[in-house]
Amino acid sequence: MRNEGETPVFRYAHTNIVARDSERLIRFYKEVFHCKSIGETRDLRGPWLDELTGLSGAHITGEHLCLPGYGDDHPTLEIFSYDDMAERGERRVNSCGLAHLAFEVDDVEETLDRVLKAGGCQVGRVVAAEYPGRRAVFVYAGDPEGNIIELQSWRKTDTK
Q: What is the DSSP letter of 32?
C-alpha cells in the first residue's frame, strides 16, 4: 500500500515470447543479441497458474533473459514453452498486435548474418534512410520461430 502523496511505481518489466522450443530460442537470443541469463528459470504449474492463464493443467518452462544495454536484471525477454500450445497464424510486419522486437546494433549486415547462421531468416531487404543529422540502416529478420526482429543502426552525419 502506498503512503498518501507517494507516486505509484510504473516501470517496464518484460516481454514474453511463447516458443515451441524455448531452449533453442533462449540460445538464439543469447548468441545473437547478447541477452544474459539473470538466473530466473521457470518450471511453473499449479492451481494459481491455471487461474492466472485460464488454462486447465497449465505447465510453463523457460527463462528470463536480461536485454542488452540496460541494468543487470530488467527489462527482460521472457521465453516460455507450455506443454500444450495453440498455433498462431502467419506473422507479418503489418499484423495487428505486437509486431516486432527491435535491437540497435553496430552493424546491421553483420548482425543479420549472425541471425541467419543461428537459424533465423531475413524478412525484408536492408535499407538506409536519411534523417536530419543522422543516417539509419534497417532490416527486418525473423528468429528461428518466426518472431519478427528489427535490426537498426544509427550514425551521425555531417550537418554542414
A: H
Domain end residue (candidates: 42, 57, 87): 87
Other CB atoms within 10 Å distance of the CB of residue 106? 8
- Same domain for 124 and 74, yes or no, is no
Residues 6+ apart with CB under 8 A from 77: 14, 15, 17, 29, 35, 64, 65, 67, 101
First to last CA, the chain: 55
Q: What is the pLDDT of residues 19-42, one digit of tens each?
A: 999 999 999 999 999 999 998 899
Instruction: Report helix angle 108-117 to 22-33, nearest 10.
Output: 150
> pLDDT digits over 77-126, tens only?
999 999 988 877 777 767 767 788 999 999 999 999 999 999 999 998 99
| Cell of residue 149, nine digits | 526482429
**All cell numbers assigned to 58:** 497449465
